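Consider the following input, taken from an annotated entry for Solute carrier family 25 member 33 isoform X2 (Salmo salar).
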Amino acid sequence: MFQVQLGTLNGTGVIRPGSGTITPPGLLQVLRSILEKEGPRSLFRGLGPNLVGVAPSRAIYFAAYKKSKETFNGVFVPNSGAVHMSSAGFAAFVTNSLMNPVWMVKTRMQLEKKARGEKKTNALQCARYVYKTEGMRGFYRGLTASYAGISETMICFLIYETLKKRLNEARFTSPNSETDKGASDFLGLMMAAAFAKGCASCIAYPHEVIRTRLREEGSKYQYFFQTARLVAVEEGYAAFYRGLIPQLIRQIPNTAIVLSTYELIIHLMGDSSQ
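Applying the prediction step yields:
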């Protein structure tokens, strides 16, 4: 919620005393503003579509990643960086294409107070409104920015798979017992995933700001490059990283848990090739 709100400030902010310059409000200021104007419940706006979308999106992603990895292992050097990046990119493309309508509705729900100032709607009402006002095309607003964000996934998995390989190599030289190794392996994978996601998010974050702007209702933002140009000209390049801290707070633990759990399930299923 904070990341979406911060990403749509459009240059508004707080006047700095003595200088007259405008600085964007920080995380705590946005939190205070949301609580004062909309109440605590607004912090969970868009949770419904998020819960509906998380499970299928993860299932689609990891299924596509696993199958494409098997294919790309026959094209490139097996388990090389090219395989990891290509597999991650393909999986992200498939997932974004199928799940964009869900994330579009989630973002609209989080921004509807700003856009229309009306009574809050549920996910179904929001979806109906989007269809009524914009048609099916409206559900795919921001998809080009999501495709640009595939680079984040590719970077993340390249770093993660490289670190995982190093952890596996270190495992065979460790004198610890199998129980100790198992615990340290899981913790190591979590740390590797957290580091990989943090690096990838910092590098590729601007696409998140552009995507959120594109999904705003009734905004002047129409296309990916047009939005990028407007943000750069009107707000400066620092605006592309507005909302990064909430994004890191949300995504790093999430990715660490998801990837380490995925690896654990693969291990329990006896598939050591992943």
